[in-house]
Design a protein that fits this description.
This protein is an alpha+beta fold. The chain contains 4 helices and 9 strands, in the order βαββββαββββαα. Helix 1 packs across helix 2. The chain starts with 9 loop residues before the first strand and ends with a helix. It comes from Methylomonas rapida. This is TIGR04255 family protein.
């Protein structure tokens, strides 16, 4: 995925860093937003997310659920093609207009440097990259032409509404943390092209060629690769770690797809 594909299947991509919690992040948001605004990320949308938490001391019965509020901030380009999601302990860069990893990964690093400049971070605890690739057969073709044989699921003549295949791998990659986790999923459905339940491109609009409202038999290749552990704020090494994560995702993509699929995306 390092060179630009003629028919790139990526319709949503995100890269995330988690860092030491900054309880007073709201105090720094105005300054951070102003830095990114001057870089073209001109839309600013504060958001409140409510979550149920169950907290109990060791050995005690489960506690009553407690409703907590988490503040996040969307800092997005005016055309809503890409942007940042900032939280008290994380920064995500996401895009629905993916081109190449050489353009994608440095943007997250750019945002992280801005956060570090304003807040003064101590360390990182997680780095991750996740891609959604759309497999939409052309007229006269089937999804089976695009997916490796082990991912084609059960077939017995009935119309399939939905199917999910998931595999989890231990990986070796990167200069900061050598052991990572790769989660490779293939969602198959007969529906409009959508997103997995846990992943919504908040604040972004899709690329035109992925906007179709047609109900169609298709697949989504959902690949998530991450490392977890204490990491220093060494931006050169962080970039190298992300490049390593991406390279293994590329290998997973090649193992998931057929020769025909790869000819189509490079045609």
């Amino acid at each position: 995925m390092s060179e630009k594909m003629s028919n790139a299947p990526v319709y949503y991509a995100l890269a995330q860093v988690q860092f030491n919690p900054v309880a007073a992040m709201a105090k720094y948001v105005d300054e951070l937003q102003d830095i990114l605004r001057r870089e073209g990320y001109t839309l600013y949308e504060p958001q409140e997310i409510r979550q149920l938490q169950f907290i109990a001391a060791a050995g005690e019965a489960p506690a009553e659920p407690k409703l907590t509020q988490i503040n996040t901030w969307l800092i997005t380009k005016a055309d809503r093609s890409s942007g940042f999601i900032l939280g008290p302990s994380s920064l995500t860069y996401h895009t629905t207009h993916y081109e190449t990893s050489e353009e994608f990964l440095p943007e997250l690093l750019h945002g992280l440097k801005a956060v570090h400049k304003v807040v003064g971070l101590d360390h990182l605890s997680r780095l991750g990259v996740r891609y959604l690739d759309a497999v939409i057969p052309t007229e006269g073709e089937t999804v089976e032409l695009y997916l490796a044989s082990g991912l084609r699921g059960v077939e017995f003549g009935a119309t399939q509404r939905y199917a999910l295949s998931e595999s989890v791998f231990e990986t070796e990659s990167g200069p900061l943390l050598s052991q990572g986790t790769l989660v490779a999923r293939v969602h198959r459905a007969t529906s409009q092209l959508g997103y997995p339940p846990d992943l919504i491109p908040n604040g972004l609009v899709p690329m035109t060629r992925f906007e179709s409202k047609r109900v169609v038999s298709h697949a989504i290749i959902d690949t998530d690769h991450f490392v977890e552990g204490r990491m220093p704020l060494d931006f050169e090494q962080i970039h190298a770690q992300f490049v390593s994560l991406h390279k293994i995702i590329k290998l997973a993509f090649e193992a998931t797809t057929t020769d025909h699929a790869r000819k189509v995306v490079w045609a």
